[in-house]
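User: Please predict the structure of the protein below. I'd like the answer in structure-token form so I can feed it into my own downstream comparison script.

Assistant: Understood. Taking the following sequence of 814 residues as input:
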Amino acid sequence: MKISYNWLRQYIDIQESPEEIARLLTSSGLEVESVEKQEGLPGGLEGIVIGEVLTREQHPNADRLSLTTVDIGSGGVVPIVCGAANVAAGQKVVVATVGATLYPTGGEPFQIKKAKIRGEASEGMICAEDEIGLGTSHAGIMVLDTQLPNGTPAAQYFNLKDDYLFEIGLTPNRSDAASHIGVARDLKALLNRPVQWPDVSGFTVDNHKRNIEVEVQNPEACPRYSGLTISGVKVQESPDWLKERLQSIGLEPINNVVDVTNFVLHELGQPLHAFDADKIRGGKVVVRYLAAGTVFRTLDQKDRKLQEQDLMICDAEGGMCIGGVFGGMESGISEGTQSVFLESAYFSPDWIRRTAQYHALKTDASFRFERGTDPNITVYALKRAAQLIKEVAGGEISSDIADFYPQPVENFSIKVRWQKLYELIGHHIPEEEVKKILNNLDIQLQDETAESFTAIVPPYRVDVQRPADIVEEVLRIYGLDNIPMPAGLSSSYMAEFPKTDENILRQEASALLAANGYLEIMTNSLTNPEYARKSDFLEEEKSVEILNKLSEDLGVMRQTLLFSGLEVIAHNINHRQRDLKLFEFGKTYRKEDNKYQEHKYVGMWITGLAEGEHYLQEARPVAYHDLRLSIELLLNRFGINDTYPQVIHEREFAYGLEIVYNGRKIDRAFAKQPIVRLGKVKPALAALAGVKQEVFWAEVNWALLLQLSGIQETVYQPVSRFPEVRRDLSLVLDKGATFNQIQEITRKAESTLIKRISVFDVYEGDKIEAGKKAYALSFILQDEDKTLTDKVIDKTMQRLMAAFEKELGAYIRK
């Protein structure tokens, strides 16, 4: 939601800076995501001042140029060559000084520099209207009628004011703040200053020429409906002030009548709709349902089939508007409109939400109606808009206000105990301070006693209906930072907390991966159904399809994280970022036997160069082992080391492994379950997402990793005082033998002294027998209690060699 700083100041006295207002709003729950400065004109006329022409002479080398001297203030007089015919001594003019950047109307920006023009020095520029972006006239320089001293910034003379745009991340419960007045109400409580509402006391009915009857057939969907008629309007372009207000929050002006309804929407938070009164057949407005399947053409020129409970604003013959959501093509305001029926209503949020979702229509009106608007402001908003339409479009108010409101929406009544309020806050706030905060939030206190009070909450605060909500209102205005931290923490209840906290473990995993050069991505769980159709490792019938699709490209829930990451890689490659290490915590979704399954995974992708180009070393592309190392770091971080790898032939990998939990030491319930699958992505699959370079991918079963981290205990072991010893072996093995087999044989032969095994060379070639390979292995031996002797070391290595010869048929190269 966008809020203009200058517009906001129309309703409350604000002396604080935009940054301070942003801080206050964020602390109170209206999170300001950004503050963007908006200049009154491009460049803000910086470096452009008011000057006075002291002398003017003919340029000796050019008939159409003049030599002038100009006083630009602060005792400075500069020579300027001017080409305007109307320049003369004694004039007050607009001067662009050296270094200023001009943004001309319809042209490219340029900077003013010292120059020589036809042999004469020129240190500035006397400006015409179009040269500084103020208009389109280039008839001559601007001659000002002003007594302002020379050197006065031109922005001050032209009354240009910078604005600041707040981007507020409005949470769904705070529909009351979806307007400038709504934000001003929070500032009223934060700053203890009154809100100045627009004055509608001058509203009068001019005549009764165009009375229109209003009938509401479905009050459960439309508890209140108000309207009036304005005759004799002239639909045209809006005045500058109105266009500037809308443009300040990113809205494009349409015409003066529609612009007023949009202005009031963002001013008060009350959606309005204007109908061409001459197109209302039968002189009657009826709020009702139409038959299911009825075709209705909306303003976007699309024909939509209505469902049974779509609330419609109709005339005597048919539909004119989808109530609270979107207007109709036939009844809208056009250049030929002369009479307007103005609607201001309160619709039930449930009905609007259902209709907006069914038709996939999200408008400024439906955004507010489906969250809950103020039922008591409809007539006030109607008067405000009617007065503005008369001001900008002329006309006369030609009917009384029709106001259907048979069952007024009641205030919320909440009984609050003082003691409970203090318990939830954890701090004693003076009662008078609590009362002042609540009164400033339009929450009245009744039935006050020493023990409790009753809070009367207006219906526009749909999020305040319980005692805890009252506490939250007090706390967000009082300030969380003003609640002191106690010396000791206590609780009024006891609870058993889980040993494994997923959020903490996720933070630890993210920090580890980030420290190793990975960047976290967050992608959409919706994906393109074409991935399942064109890849042979996904089953199309198991895709979870979306009923109300935003687009065909986002039609199903993803079965794998693979393509989400590939799309990010493709996007970065297209922006010249080819070397990537990415990870994502995400969910996958599948349909199995008409049941839906959801699984948590961590996806990891690497592509491009492992290290950047450097004169000390050659650039190296990423390899499978780079990804494998990251996986080992992640598993070790959570104490998961009882694993073994096995080759897989999954259809998404050109080659790959899965790392399986052994379950030998602690819990066999998870034995033989794969924790990670990793390998090189098939080029054909990468190409589906537009990636042509080599990509390595890993999929970590996050749910299983969490379970295993909960049963693995990290035990501290002192660093041994005795030295390590290294011994190397060279084995000739069958090609089918794996390093995992070597590890298992080593564990069986000697599980105490051998601490680590690694492969430092592999050879396959004509110097050994066909079908064989040679492994060069290093073994690190250490005794925790004493220094190893050569006798013990040799005996251990002999035992290992014998085991390799027996179980793997290995030949020991010496």
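That's the full token string. The longest helix spans residues 790-808.
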